[in-house]
Amino acid sequence: MRMEDRIVITGVGLTAPIGNNLADFRESLLNCRSGVRKYETRFIGEVLAGVCDYEPTLYQTRKDIRRGTRAGSISIYCAHEAIKDSGLPFEDFDKSRMGVYLGITEHGNVETENEIYNISQYGYDVKYWSHHHNPRTIANNPAGEVTLNLGITGPHYTLGAACAAGNIGFIQGAQMLRLGEVDAALAGGVSESIHTFGIFASFKSQGALASHEDPAKASRPFDTGRTGIVVSEGGCIYILERLDDALKRGAKVYGELVGYCINSDACDFVLPAPERQAECMRKALKMAGIKPDDIDILNAHATATHMGDIQECKALREVFCGCKDVYINNTKSYIGHAMGAAGALELAGNLPGFDDGIVHPTINLDNLDKECKLDNIVANKPLQINEIKYILNNSFGMFGINSVVIIKKYDE
């Protein structure tokens, strides 16, 4: 592959229910620390959720926070942290040559619900409707808020891709670098989903909203006692660069993108199709030029819904059956489902494995569902292995959108 086509990660900025930077996030993963807690939401009352506690005033004024959105604020925090982590000389960087590509599951529901509730207190008189509503609810809001805050004049947009969006924002950034449209990309995914009661109500009516007397044990992918999804907020944004640019400035390289794929099931609103998920993984492996048993860590999408976990496990068995050194883990067991941010956060949690050789576990896996039986699921305690060279990250979403990213440990 030509040097200019090799895309690497040089910065990571994140906020999650278990950490506001990669080091803290990783520490929580290795110490099996859950970030799920009780949370009050309008009209429903107490639910379980993954809630972030970053400090938004680090990079925004209080006026900007009030005017903008939670998703925008998360994006701004993560973008600043990614730039700082990358060591990119941002002040001198040509801002027209930087792009912002953020995956989202949904956007605008929070603000619309809030405005409708507000005017309901005044007899639905629309004169009390906020004039900030339109810029708050347009789909490109989170990426747009980043450009306003940082003065970036290159392209920006969000990619609505349900729960596959974190991977897809990452892929889009890499593609734009390969096309030569930008020289650096802020790419990843964000979610503000816990701030809309509608998402809780919908999952509850579907029978897919997790419950447990102990919040830390509520998110239980693959377990016979799983009861559904824990909704979470969060964000993870990467700085992506072409390898030659990263080397010229002596940047730290977290890993290199070597394979990816996006495809569609085209069969159901919500029920995944294992054959299409398997096809997506195979195509990503083919692009990377590797075999299934070359993968060291496979981070499963598994959301802890009954059929969702079973269908993905069918796909994993189809592709990785007999691969005895492919270790499978899951991050949602710690933080719940961060929707548009899920794929990006889940990849980030495994990247330090290139240096320390540790596979973080899936927690809360006490009784493996026989229909989810897979070789080498790492459960309840970290696993030290000889070397981690390849990480495969699955992210799948409603309407059967599937995304797979493969990252390789950087070597010359």
Task: State the main characteristics.
single chain, 412 residues, Peroxisomal Thiolase, Chain A, domain 1, 2 domains, 3-stranded mixed β-sheet, 15 strands
What's this model, at a glance?
This protein is 33% helix and 21% strand. The protein is built from 14 helices and 15 strands.
Explain how this protein is built.
- The chain has 412 residues and is an alpha/beta fold.
- It folds into two domains: 246 residues, Thiolase/Chalcone synthase (Peroxisomal Thiolase, Chain A, domain 1); 151 residues, Thiolase/Chalcone synthase (Peroxisomal Thiolase, Chain A, domain 1, 3-Layer(aba) Sandwich), CATH 3.40.47.10.
- The chain contains 14 helices and 15 strands.
- A ten-stranded mixed β-sheet has the order 5-4-6-8-1-9-15-14-10-11, with helices on both faces. A three-stranded mixed β-sheet has the order 2-3-7.
- A hairpin with a 3-residue loop joins strand 2 and strand 3.
- Helix 3 crosses helix 6 and helix 7 packs across helix 13.
- The longest helix has 17 residues.
- The chain is globular, with a radius of gyration of 20 Å.
- The chain starts with 6 loop residues before the first strand and ends with a strand.
- The relative contact order is 0.18.
